[in-house]
Amino acid sequence: MTNQRVLMTAVGSYLPANVVTNEALSSFVDTDDAWIRRRTGIAQRHLVADGETTSDLAYHAATKALANAGLAGGDIDLIIIATTTPDNTFPSTATKLQHMIDAKGAIAFDIQAVCAGFVYALDVADAMLRSGRGRRALVVGAESFSKLLDWEDRATCVLFGDGAGAVVLELADDAGDDAGDWGIRSSVLHSDGAYRDILYVDGGPSSNAAVGHVRMEGKEVFRHAVEKLASVMDEALSAANMQAGDIDWLVPHQANVRIIDAMQKKMDLPSDRVVRTVEQHANTSAASIPLALSAAVDDGRIKNGDVLAMEAIGGGLAWGAALVKFGRPL
Ligand code: ACO
Q: Comparing 18-32, 106-120, 166-180, which segment has the lowest mean pLDDT?
């Protein structure tokens, strides 16, 4: 393993065209806009169309990220897709994407850590690049999460949406002198299967051969989220020798605006330093962090050289945090 830095040089994202507002949802779910907004901060979500798959979403996000990096599929050595909603049980959605973008020589596989999938994939890609498995990686969070929803369960079906985001990671050039504090500064992951029953899908190939639906004890998940995200962020800051005040942007997993607000408070960050997309995207699981990052880069808030804090928690429980100085030294 080298001490070389892994840079996050570009991002891209994609949302399906079909937007479903809370009002529209209320026409077939026993809920209302005021309840959803008050408890979650969500106003709308994007949902895949019939026949639109996770690999389609991943493809659009990946091609935008590649274009923003000035790269082609053939330049990529490693593709990791974080997803809980693959096109098929196998092969991996990443191998499908590899073919779609013509990244012939790349290693490609999926990672399953539900809503924490993006921070897990980032950590694995960082380690693989630094251990010599290639120089450039695509890390994608892509979900058709609506496929796992029970539309009769109003406590879960209002929370989620579909979409994809992708980042390009590049090993800093050995000849490059000044990559010192750029790129992935620290990354910390945790899992605890003792809590697997508070958030899970009641189906799977080896249990009942069904796709299944999301089941959740919302209050319990909420409690663990606030506590575990705060503590893993402390670990990531300490691993990078940094303090919350060194962070330019919190780019959190977008599950619930109340969880995001709690983190902002714990980190004592000004509200305008937190990227919030949950209102427009709802919870897109592994896609939510790169979707939020992409939105804030596209609208000019996040700039080359900004220091980002990312954190996420989801089923498992699995959770993690990463600190990244975004972009590349100019
Ligand atoms: N519309 C209207 N009423 C509803 C709805 C709905 N969609 N859903 C539940 N209710 C009702 C319940 O029936 C209940 O009614 P009652 O008091 O008459 O029995 C009432 O609202 C309160 O229900 P709770 O489930 O106790 O509501 P709570 O305040 O816990 O909010 C929520 C639920 C929003 C899910 C919250 O627990 C939460 O955000 N948890 C975090 C979970 C999360 O974000 N999960 C995403 C995946 S994991 C992750 O990404 C971190």
A: 166-180
**Ligand 1 atom 14: the closest Cα is on which residue?**
155
Q: Is the CB of 191 under 6 A from ligand 1?
A: no
- Does the annotation mark 157 as catalytic? no
Catalytic annotation present for 115: yes
Residue showing tokens 């590049």: 170
In the chain, what are the domains?
A: 1-330 (3.40.47.10)
What pLDDT, in 10s, does the model give residues 144-161?
999 999 999 999 999 999
Q: Has residue 4 got a pLDDT over 90?
A: no
Q: Which member of 115, 157, 224, 281 is catalytic? A: 115
Band of pLDDT at residue 173, cut at 50, 70 and 90: confident
Instruction: For residue 157, report the distance from its CA to the centre of ligand 1, in Å.
Output: 10
Is 208 designated active site? Answer: no
78-115 pLDDT per residue, tens: 999 999 999 999 999 999 999 999 999 999 999 999 99
- The closest residue, in CA terms, to atom 7 on ligand 1 is 154
